[in-house]
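Supplementary Methods, section 5.1.

A reviewer requested that the exact input to the structure prediction be made available. We therefore reproduce it here, unchanged from the version used in the analyses.
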Amino acid sequence: MLRGREVILIPDRDRVGYERVKKIARALLGNVARLVYLELEDGGDVSEWFQRGHSELELIEQLDGEQVSH
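The structure derived from this sequence is encoded token-by-token as follows.
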């Protein structure tokens, strides 16, 4: 379903979240067009990050500055 797609992985900031994203990334590597890992520093997860007042534009800016794996 994701073959040829761009996938952005944003882990929850706890041990379970990191392990889950690592497992997903391993499964996706070589099977998607672009795989991006983004760790948000303000909040436990992406929902909390938005609740703290961050915007979609900030998310896009962070994505533009992140290293991309092919």
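The chain is about 45% helix and 15% strand. These observations are discussed further in the main text.
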